[in-house]
């Protein structure tokens, strides 16, 4: 039995289902609180490229409001992040709804994080290998610096994972993720302050 093509998807499904049952009290409380502070919108959906660059909708808890300036443009993330949203991000609770993506088959528990579709034209051929597997809720890059990694090593970790994926590697990443979540390590509450957007960075390097 192949781990990558058979056992890993099975583990993803059953572990995610079990996790949703165990975490259901947290999910219910977070949903109620975020429904109140976000005017009835507790969840955030966004298009992301998955395996083979197929676009899917990732689901997360909504940690920011939709407040706009006088010109109708969304305010900066730091101005829209709610107090409850900060706690949800700091504790990584915002990532829990992605378990539904795993059950649906769009994602895996362990794998390269799904990034923005606008980045697709800016990957090198080697970096594009990150899309040969399903994206994950957590991955090798996340346990080696997460949002505070520069783009180059971050994408290198993604490719390294694709080329070394195994039960042992996944289990090691899983344990390290639990530690980092419990210790609240390498979590950028305002992600815009940790790294520039990849497409903007690559365009600036072309100038």
SS summary, helix count: 8
3D shape: globular
Output the helix-strand order. HHEEHHHEEHHH
Strand elements, count: 4
Strand content: 5-15%
The biggest beta sheet reads: 2 strands, antiparallel
Q: Nearest-angstrom radius of gyration?
A: 17 Å
Strand line-up across the major sheet? 1-2
Roughly how much helix do the residues carry, as a percent range? 40-55%
Summary keywords:
207 residues; 8 helices; 4 strands; mainly alpha; two-stranded parallel sheet; two-stranded antiparallel sheet; globular
Summarize the structure.
Helix content is 45%, strand content 10%. It contains 8 helices and 4 strands, in the order ααββαααββααα. The longest helix has 20 residues, at 3-22.
Which secondary structure elements does this structure contain, and how are they paired or packed?
Blueprint: H1 3-22, H2 24-37, E1 43-49, E2 55-61, H3 77-80, H4 83-90, H5 98-104, E3 108-110, E4 136-138, H6 151-164, H7 167-183, H8 198-206
Parallel strand pairs: 3-4
Antiparallel strand pairs: 1-2
Helix pairs in contact: 1-5
Characterization of this structure:
Helices cover 45% and strands 10% of the residues. Helix 1 (3-22) crosses helix 5. It is mainly alpha-helical and 207 residues long. It starts with a helix and ends with a helix. The chain has helices spanning 3-22, 24-37, 77-80, 83-90, 98-104, 151-164, 167-183, 198-206, and strands at residues 43-49, 55-61, 108-110, 136-138. The longest helix has 20 residues, at 3-22.
């Amino acid at each position: 039995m192949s781990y990558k093509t058979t056992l890993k998807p099975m583990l993803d499904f059953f572990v995610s289902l079990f996790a949703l049952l165990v975490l259901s009290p947290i999910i219910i409380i977070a949903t109620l609180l975020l429904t109140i502070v976000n005017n009835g919108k507790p969840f955030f959906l966004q298009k992301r490229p998955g395996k083979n660059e197929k676009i899917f909708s990732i689901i997360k808890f909504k940690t920011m409001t939709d407040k706009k300036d006088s010109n109708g443009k969304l305010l900066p993330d730091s101005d829209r992040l709610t107090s409850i949203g900060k706690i949800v991000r700091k504790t990584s609770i915002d990532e829990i709804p992605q378990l539904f993506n795993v059950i649906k088959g769009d994602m895996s528990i362990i794998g390269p994080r799904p990034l923005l579709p606008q980045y697709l034209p800016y990957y090198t051929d080697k970096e594009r290998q990150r899309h040969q597997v399903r994206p994950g809720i957590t991955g090798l890059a996340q346990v080696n610096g997460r949002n505070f990694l520069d783009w180059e090593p971050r994408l290198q970790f993604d490719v390294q994972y694709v080329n070394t994926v195994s039960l042992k590697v996944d289990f090691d990443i899983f344990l390290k993720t639990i530690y980092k979540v419990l210790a609240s390590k390498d979590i950028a509450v305002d992600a815009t302050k940790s790294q520039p957007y990849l497409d903007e960075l690559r365009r600036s390097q072309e100038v």
